[in-house]
Amino acid sequence: MGPVRKLRKIAKVEEVSFDPADREEFLTGFRKRKQQRIKHAQEIAAKRAKEEKRLDRQKIRAERAAEFQHAIEEHKRQLKLLKAEDTSDNEIGESGSDDESDEEWQGIEEPPAVDYEAEYIDEDKYTTVTVEEIDSSRDGLRKSILGEDVEAENKAKAEKAAKRLAQEEEEAARLAKKRKPTADKPKKKKKQFRYESKQDRKLAAAKQRLSKAKKAKARREK
């Protein structure tokens, strides 16, 4: 015979009641709850992004501190090397100065003059070479290269400039001579404007009427 099955005791619900306000809030609050979930998710995402930025800044600061420390160590190492080199140079300089203390500097010697002539004779040819100093400036070098062509060119330029100046003076004199009669010509007097008086206007009107009457009479007689 199998085990005896025990029945669970279920408490009887005497009454089930619904709150109308809670029911209405549940049925009409879907959008509100959705917006709350979205806002909560956004807040969590913002906190996560803020934490990530903080970690990134912390990492960057640590890297910069390490680089700065490395630069300081490298600088110290370079200073030590420079000090060691200076010490060795001073020792070499002191040893060299002892050897050169007896010698005095005589200054820069002047180069010998190069103006001379030399003759070269061959079995078939004979030539004379003249060596002379030249000016190291631009004009001196140009003169040494071009020779007499520069002087001729300068002379031609001077003659051309003098000729142009003479032509300009002649042209100016000709224009001045041409303008002189017009300058001496007497100016024409400007006619003065004068208002007619009332009597003059009446007299002119009477003359005009008389002239018109004569012309009309002459036309009628024809």
UniProtKB/TrEMBL annotation:
Specify the domain of life of the species encoding this protein: Eukaryota
Q: Which GO terms describe its molecular function?
A: rRNA binding
The cellular component terms of Gene Ontology attached to this UniProt record, alphabetical and capped at eight, are: nucleolus
User: Could you tell me which species this protein originates from?
Assistant: Penicillium diatomitis
Where does the UniProt annotation locate this protein?
Nucleus, Nucleolus
Pfam families per the record? Nop25
- Protein name per its UniProtKB record: Protein required for cell viability Rrp17
Q: Where is the composition biased (Acidic residues)?
A: 87-107
Please tell me whether the keyword Coiled coil is annotated for this protein: yes
Q: Tell whether tRNA processing is among the UniProt keywords.
A: no
Q: Which family does it belong to?
A: Belongs to the RRP17 family.
* Region Disordered: start-end pairs: 80-121, 153-222
| Organism phylogeny | Eukaryota, Fungi, Dikarya, Ascomycota, Pezizomycotina
